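Supplementary Methods S3. Input chains for the assembly prediction are listed below.
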Amino acid sequence: MDVRAHVSVIFHLDKCIGCHTCSVACKNVWTDRPGAEYMWWNNVETKPGTGYPTRWEDQEKFNGGWKYDAEKKDIALRCQNKADTFLKLFYNPNQPNLQDYYEPFTYKYEDLFTAPAGDDQPTAVPVSLITGEPIEIKSGPNWDDDLSGSPIYAENDLNLDKLTEEERAQLFEIERLTMFYLPRICNHCANPTCVAACPSGAIYKRGEDGIVLINQEKCRGWRACVAACPYKKIYFNWKTGKSEKCILCFPRLETGQPPACFHSCVGRIRYLGVLLYDADKIPSAMKVSDRALVDSQRDAILDPHDPEVVAAALRNGISEEFLDSAQNSPAYKYVIEWKLALPLHIEYRTMPMLFYVPPLLPVMGKSANGTYEHSADKFFTSLEDARIPVKYLASLFSAGNEQVVEAVMRKLMAVRYYKRWQSVRDLAENDVHRILREAKTTPEEVEAIYQMTAIPTHYQRFVLPPLQREEAIESTCSPEACKGCSGFSLDPAFTPRA
Amino acid sequence: MVDAFFFVGLPYLAIVICVAGCIWRSRYDQFSMSARSSQFLEDGKLLFGSLPWHVGIITILLGHLVVAVVPRVWSSLMVIPAVLFGVEALGVCCSLLAIAGLSALIVRRITDARVQAVTTTMDLVVVVLLMAQIVIGLLSSITFRYGAAWSAGTVVPYFWGILTLQPEMAHVTGFPMLFKLHIIGAWVLIALVPFTRLMHVLAVPLGYIFRAPQLVLWNNPRRRREAVDATARAESRRDFIKGAVGIAGASGLLALGVSEKVVTYFKGPDPDPEAESALLQKKLERLQQTAEERQLELERQRVEMILVARYIELDAAKGKYFIDYAMAPGLAFKGKNGLPLLISAKCTHLGCTVGSQVNAEGQIMCPCHVSYFNIVTGQPNPGAPAKLPLPHLAWALVDPSGNVVASGLPGGEVEGTPSPELLAQCSLYITKPRHSA
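Predicted structure tokens for the full assembly:
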């Protein structure tokens, strides 16, 4: 058992209001630079929709992620295998280009002030941030925002492919249209394809917190990572010729603050905490059939309360303070204890360490004859003919395994019924307890879920491990022994590799 | 002169600039090192430019490399006409492929506004130079056929001469102008590598073939402490080994010397008859010398009186040294009464010879441990290292005719009172100490 700690995050989609504050916070902090204008390390997509870059989920086109060979029970990179990497240096057919993103633009605001006097109101024309020439804006990072039902965007969502014609028709029926938001950052995967594909060895995973970073000095701009990342969360800076990606605001984490997108989140949908996982199970945990992937990933995550795990963690150099934050981690509660949070597109087999609590709102919000239906007899009927089919959510969050999503939904609904019963008392107590039993939960657990979901404090949402430089030094190593090698800087003197 | 510059000076200049520049850039400006792909900005035409260009130029460069590295093997292959034709045809095809690709790239770079946004002046310089170089190379290979065969005996020795610091430009100075230009162009391109995107050639990620898929870096002090500890352990071990080796070496040398001495002691010196006889000869000489000295001493003992000085040489302030019967030094002064005063000059402390100069207190000093002796009494000064007084010696004054005119004993008793005129003619002797009962 090789215990490693991972700073993991939870996005609670029920709480996301799609305001893009996270994207703007990130943009202002990190990507407001020449060459990075088109990068949205954090973006918010409307689902159903095509996302950013357009149809990023289409691995037939982009060939990202790992490919599972069911006969050999082994995984290999879909593209960028060692053999074809060298030919793809010259031209990479899987690399997304500007058409898949959008041409970054600004407006010529100074024209408003310098235009000569005339009959017409002066206008600020859009200009390309690459060429400086006036352009016609054709798309943007969230061009399909709120455009559910749109034939060019929503209907091209790949996750709808598995739905029947009937289900699709229902989904896009007028007045029944529904959507939810999917904020995305880098998943900081435990089995990342970008690291595996990087020819220069510039991308690495930080051992102590699992953050995936690109060494800008070592990157040579071969762009294999851009093609290999199935989530298209690595962006190529056309100006510097280097790839860039979300850094989980590690400079903020190291000064005791949550990442910018987390801190600014209006809906408070984001949680951050430590997960312990067994590095020995990587990548073997991802070498199972699609249906078993979610459980297989859960198996690789370790219980921070288990004395054996604690002992193994201490042996591996994980400090007591780190273990404390692992034991209080909201991520562990959501992913393992309550089993509510699921990884996005686990079938890419990168073992993402970002988990989503699937949205219940559009599922529950089924109305019949103008009223919500929640009679005590048929609590879960709304689940079966929900406006967003479970099949669609399963395609996103459980590699098509509907049972996993259904279990999550039942529990989420049970929390609502229980809390409604507590305050409104319009259901019989017996029925409520039956609902809890069917959802495999208890009143205590429901209370805990409610507390963490609806009224958590800042410090319950963000349980930061001691990544701060000072703490990291004090808790682990005497300053004399570690002179010159403390902190998280990329000190060239010491880069021991695991 | 011009040839010397282009075929000896320029190559070395180019090599120095390339090597120094590449080292400098990869140490201090790594961030600028990138393949600088523009596929992101323009995806369509690039395929028809980049791929043929790279495939063509890499094949041609490999051909150049092989003939330079194994010229003999290459020559022996080129003897076969079919192979020679094949290689020449492949070269021409690849040149055409590269020219086509490069042309597409140049057109793309000039016409596409987005690609222009990432184009530097050096990019254009490089592209033009490359184009010129390939066209010249292709033309010369068509004009002067079968370069694949004859280059091994001409350009390759020139190239190796440059590399082995024995430049022999005669190999190439006789070439036609077209071919000379091709060689000059190559050196210019090499010199430009560190300042242009050509640098990406050195970044070919060959290490990727061998590395593990996942890369994890530890920055944590705890993990680092292990590294530090490991380093410290290794270092202390190294220090210990160093120290042990040093001590062992020193004691080994010492032991060698000691054992040599020990062995010689027990075994005795080497039985070398010549050295032995020389040693005996020396011993004999030394013994003879000693015997002579003893003889002199004996003779001295026999005589009744030993000459010390003429009376007029005596002085009250500065003594005159002489050797007494016991072969010990003595000092002769002129006493207060005008008569001689003789005192032993062998210090009673450790036997040094006492100084001859009398100080204001009427004392002479032993220079070894600073004892002052009164010349009249012979007593050392209080607290001096010497405790016993210097003894006085018996003396006799003899006139020119051989009569003793005056004599003195160590106690101070004087016999005879010669006149000053007579004294001036006298000589001073020491007399044999009489052991009175």
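The radius of gyration of chain B is 52 Å. Residues 2-206 of chain B form a domain with the Fumarate Reductase Cytochrome B subunit fold (CATH 1.20.950.20).
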